[in-house]
Design goal:
The chain is of the alpha/beta class. The chain has 2 domains: 37-98 and 366-481, Aspartate Aminotransferase, domain 1 (Alpha-Beta Complex), CATH 3.90.1150.10; 123-363, Type I PLP-dependent aspartate aminotransferase-like (Major domain) (Aspartate Aminotransferase, domain 2, 3-Layer(aba) Sandwich). Helix 5 (107-117) runs antiparallel to helix 13 and helix 14 (373-391) packs parallel to helix 16. The strands form 4 sheets. It has a 7-stranded mixed sheet, sandwiched between helices. It has helices at 10-15, 18-35, 49-63, 95-98, 107-117, 131-144, 159-173, 192-197, 221-226, 230-247, 271-283, 304-307, 349-363, 373-391, 423-436, 463-480, and strands at 73-78, 81-84, 89-92, 123-124, 150-156, 179-183, 213-216, 252-258, 287-292, 316-319, 326-331, 347-348, 407-410, 413-416, 438-439, 441-443, 449-452. The protein is globular and about 65 Å long. 41% of the residues lie in helices and 15% in strands.
């Protein structure tokens, strides 16, 4: 049958060809056979030392400075374990700041990547795309709209660009208002505008300050207790927000909400605090923008705004990192005029095939809720930290500036606070952990914390004692230094 008379396109026939998918399944099985050989942490291979150092030297030459970690993977792993190009095997408790949430050499992800290889469209944009990009956005909106009025999604290539799109939507809706409000210690990305909003002087050093930003403190339970309770603290903060509103009447475009702070220290908020601030914004016609670049998929619900029951307040939402492709979601009221949002690239085919596979995994039964898999993993993580602190109390001195317990965060956003939150010792702990066989990182601005973003869909409960055995070795080195 010729293409002119067929009821299917040639492309449809190609994508559904059983012989191709049989071959793909053979590849997936073969990858799994190699992956199964990775079972335990091991040190670098001596014979690979010279070639690996050359890789690091090349990376430093191209980038202009050395890698923060000497971290270049070999291309294979097994769930939460990853092999590096020097032959070492490590527990990946950071997953590229959460990008590799499905772990390493995951059969579902390998298959999704192979499916992407069939399409002639390598990069998708606003002038040509495949339906995978449409499906990805459609599914994000379907999940988000269960408990909110979010109705549309604009897909883009990074979290920072999703945030750039979000602020444009807010600016246009509330023109000529140009000011924004954000939480102290927030992180928004590395673009010119986002680096100005992010509360980090180093992140905007030398950048002209053209964005007008005011900051409010994130929730602080210790301060609330000192002030006589949550209600008094919330009333005080609403008073501060009222002052901004009166001072800049009609000039505030949006309030950007990190519902759980990421770079700022995996700080968890009080839902009543967030609701009070959002109700104020709704009353004063200030856009409520929820930044879920890091929280999406990781809390006890798929969206952190669901966990806090805030859906009715959300005007604009951004997601990224683990989703592969990133997106700006908005309600019908905030649907921008033609021409505001566009771009040559919205992502690569593999972003959407893998992103859709990830959404399948997140939507599976058993992940969410107070007794779901992610909550259980967080409880086991907390148990391991508490056991380590009980065994080595001198490693966990009292930290007056610590908000919350030694083990904190929410769901798959995990952090613990050794050595009184001392910056140098926390960073040293993370680097020693890398050498011993656990990839983690730091967060916070004082106190500092060790943070983890583990691949919870493939993480096993019995993995946690093995991870913390390595953490204990690393901390003993720092404590004895």
């Amino acid at each position: 049958m010729t293409p002119q008379t067929s009821t299917q396109t040639v492309g449809t026939e190609l994508l559904s060809d059983p012989s191709i998918h049989d071959a793909f399944n053979t590849i997936v099985d073969q990858v799994a056979a190699y992956s199964a050989r990775i079972t335990e942490v091991q040190p670098p291979t001596a014979d690979l030392k010279v070639s690996f150092q050359q890789m690091l030297d090349d990376a430093a030459k191209i980038k202009g400075r050395g890698l923060l970690y000497p971290s270049i993977s070999s291309g294979v792993g097994n769930g939460a374990l990853v092999e590096m190009a020097d032959g070492s095997i490590k527990w990946d408790m950071l997953t590229g700041i959460g990008v590799h949430f499905m772990g390493h050499s995951n059969p579902k992800i390998i298959k999704a990547q192979l499916d992407a290889a069939l399409l002639d469209t390598t990069k998708h944009g606003n002038l040509q795309t495949s339906y995978d990009a449409v499906t990805f956005g459609e599914r994000l909106v379907k999940h988000a709209s269960r408990t909110s009025d979010l109705a549309h999604a604009f897909i883009t290539t990074s979290g920072a660009m999703a945030n750039e799109s979000a602020i444009k939507v807010c600016y246009q809706k509330h023109a000529p208002a140009t000011r924004v409000i954000a939480f102290e210690h927030c992180f928004m990305g590395r673009s010119v505008t986002m680096s100005q909003i992010g509360d980090s002087a180093a992140g905007r050093q030398g950048v002209p300050l053209s964005t007008q930003v005011d900051y409010l403190p994130f929730w602080d339970q210790a301060k609330a207790d000192a002030m006589g309770g949550d209600t008094k603290y919330i009333d005080w903060m609403i008073g501060r927000l009222e002052k901004y509103h009166n001072r800049y009447a009609g000039q505030i475009s949006t309030f950007i909400f990190e519902l759980v702070q990421g770079e700022g220290g995996f700080n968890v908020s009080n839902p009543d605090y967030l609701k009070a601030l959002m109700e104020f914004c709704r009353d004063k016609r200030i856009a409520v923008w929820a930044d879920e670049i890091q929280t999406f998929g990781r809390t006890q619900e798929m969206f952190a705004f669901e966990y806090y029951d805030l859906g009715k307040y959300i005007d604009v939402l951004t997601v990224g990192k683990m989703t592969q492709a990133c997106a700006t979601l908005y309600t019908e009221e905030y649907n921008p005029k033609a021409g505001l949002l566009s771009g040559t690239f919205t992502g690569a085919t593999v972003d959407f095939t893998v992103g859709n596979a990830l959404l399948d995994e997140l939507a599976a039964d058993g992940n969410y809720g107070p007794n779901g898999k992610f909550a259980q993993h967080h409880a086991e993580f907390t148990k391991q930290v508490q056991a380590l602190a009980a065994k080595h109390p001198d490693w966990f001195p009292e930290t007056p500036s610590l908000t919350g317990d030694l083990a904190g965060g929410l769901g798959g956003m995990m952090r613990f606070t050794p050595f009184g939150g001392d910056k140098d010792k926390v960073i040293a702990t993370c680097k020693a952990a890398y050498e011993e066989g656990v990839i983690c990182f730091w967060c916070g601005h004082g106190p500092f914390h060790v943070r983890m973003l583990p691949p919870l869909p493939v993480m096993k409960m019995e993995d946690w004692p093995r991870v913390f055995k390595v953490i204990e070795r690393a901390m003993s080195k720092v404590a004895g230094a």
